[in-house]
Amino acid sequence: MSADSSASARFADRRDLAAQDVLGLIRIALDAPDLGSGVTPTLHNLVSNTAAVGAAYFQVQPLTQRRGPQPLIYQVRAAFGEMPDTPGMQAIAAHGLPADTPLMRALASRHAPMFFDDVSHAPESAGFQELGVASLAAAAVTGSGGELLGAFLMHTFECHHWTDDEVRLFSGVVGTIAALTGRLAAEEQAQAAREAALRALGLALEVRDGETQGHTDRVTDMALRLAQHLGVGPAPLQALKWGAYLHDIGKLAIADRVLHKPGKLDAEEWGLMQSHVTFGQSFSSALGFLPPEALAVVSQHHERWNGQGYPARLRGEEIHPLARIFALCDVYDALISVRPYKQPWSHAEACAEIAAQSGEHFDPWVVEAFLTLMPPSQAHAGAVG
Amino acid sequence: MSADSSASARFADRRDLAAQDVLGLIRIALDAPDLGSGVTPTLHNLVSNTAAVGAAYFQVQPLTQRRGPQPLIYQVRAAFGEMPDTPGMQAIAAHGLPADTPLMRALASRHAPMFFDDVSHAPESAGFQELGVASLAAAAVTGSGGELLGAFLMHTFECHHWTDDEVRLFSGVVGTIAALTGRLAAEEQAQAAREAALRALGLALEVRDGETQGHTDRVTDMALRLAQHLGVGPAPLQALKWGAYLHDIGKLAIADRVLHKPGKLDAEEWGLMQSHVTFGQSFSSALGFLPPEALAVVSQHHERWNGQGYPARLRGEEIHPLARIFALCDVYDALISVRPYKQPWSHAEACAEIAAQSGEHFDPWVVEAFLTLMPPSQAHAGAVG
């Protein structure tokens, strides 16, 4: 009776200790800036408390890297301890594990953790012996639809019989962390999907207007570089990116006869063309989730430092700083691009025009930063279209 | 010495017990189908272990419900225990807490939990006495940018001095749960934003083509209703919704002279018009995150059951079931809408045409379901545009 209760107390202790540990690992994963660094302490915990010499977390490749009908790849997001020094393992470290490997297929269909004392004896762990792994434990990270978002793996170099304690530890620790990781990975995926949809909205216009092919991506990249150079922080940078994607979305509302007119626009046509800014603003507002800074980029990207822009004839610092940064990049990209009515300007010619417009079209502070970042004497790859 | 170690052991016990508790609450929140039901056990735990008679979780209103420049509202997502029976509290239960109330403003700027023994004595808890609350504890749920996504509140009806234990419990339990809730709420928000961006992609076309105003939303709603009636599950329903949003996105690439031609299209123009399907498919694929079922809706919505559709002349069950469902709704909406060349048909006339096309244009199984769901004899609100 006394022995019983002491054993049960010891068991409770171990269980409580594990709870404390897991809670600590959860807090780290929740507070980490990214999922990879967030789960590293979990991998450390596994290697410290089991016979495993190394552990890794694999996650399905980001949406932005997926290419058509090829099988999905699970990439290493975090690793701790020793990895086998084989060409196969180096390839996996560099390129990831394809979704059609037997282990990933097994994880996708079975949600309980799997333990292999000898990887050469089970069809699910086929291929791992060749990688230099002897024993393996694996747990799935799944999304709300049951899809396989990632996996936790730990391994030994010599054959090892996974003990009950190790099975309990791996199942317990990884069980909760995997559930959490699944949700955090879903958040990453949803954010990437929002990003892709916003970029697609911007690109939708280029479909109609062959001339501006690549303009959205080029001008977005340049505006982000210039803003970073000017010390803009992460949240406004994000807003700038969204605003840049959507800056010309209002041109979707402009008829072909105006948008594609080869000659000079008359007054009525010019008024219609200018309306793309106010239309773009109302369209972007209707999205419902863009921060005010992103909307400012859309609504103010044709304002000028000297008050001669449109639609509101804002002047100087009345114009949002992000819109001032973006306006310069937008004009630069137009200058170096070919148009039916003009040849592309050289980088040096475009810089000279931008310098001449300092204090007129553009904010002098932004002009100075631009000319420091991309000096006129330096060669730059011009725009293609 | 012995007293010391026993006190420390008791403290460790309590801490471990709390860790077990919090871990259990975390697992519930992670596994729950929605955040509201996921945090209810946490509220239960607070009311059971403190003097609080009631507790609630408020979350910022979904993106889809936000309207322009009005202040954000924090809506009740979960509540447990007793709430004051006052008109003010009933208004909050129904409409939420505006972001500009003193308490929400204080939570947005201070991230540590706040405790009010007497709400009438602190400016931050102004207004709560009128609601029938005497003592209050509040904790913020923040997003990665520090923005206030929600709040946990617990209250008493009589003035109560919050004890050290209660402060520790609320801070400890709510601390971790709030961090988790913040991430899960961010996932919800990111998903809503992706949804909004996809819908906006669909609506972008309507901007150019005044005729089809409202078509995207109407046809999406009807396709979802018909699919639900046919027993389609949640994941394919989601795919159908995305495909419906994007079905005509390829028309962005069609020139005005074809898209807006009032008369009959010649062979070359008709070829261009048909190309909107293949273009829409490549555009939708480029988004990178749409499931194959959504792409099937886009690429097959002009195929016909009898093999006379385009672009692939698929026949019968070669056409994806979601595309068969969608095609019928798309045609129905065109029939009941006004066009420059035709008056809107009545619901009964449209039903007669659809019935006549059973086994020709449409899958007989889908036609039957449609006529059951929307019988010809029943009046339906026609399309406006």
UniProtKB/TrEMBL annotation, chains A, B:
GO molecular function terms listed in the Swiss-Prot or TrEMBL record: hydrolase activity
CDD domains with a match to the protein in the record: HDc
Domain HD-GYP: 190-385
InterPro entries documented for this protein: Cyclic_di-GMP/3'3'-cGAMP_PDE, GAF-like_dom_sf, HD/PDEase_dom, HD_GYP_dom, HDIG_dom
UniProt KW keywords: Hydrolase
Keyword Hydrolase: yes
Stored PANTHER family: CYCLIC DI-GMP PHOSPHODIESTERASE TM_0186-RELATED, TWO-COMPONENT RESPONSE REGULATOR-RELATED
Listed name of the protein: Phosphohydrolase
Species in which this protein is naturally found: Deinococcus irradiatisoli
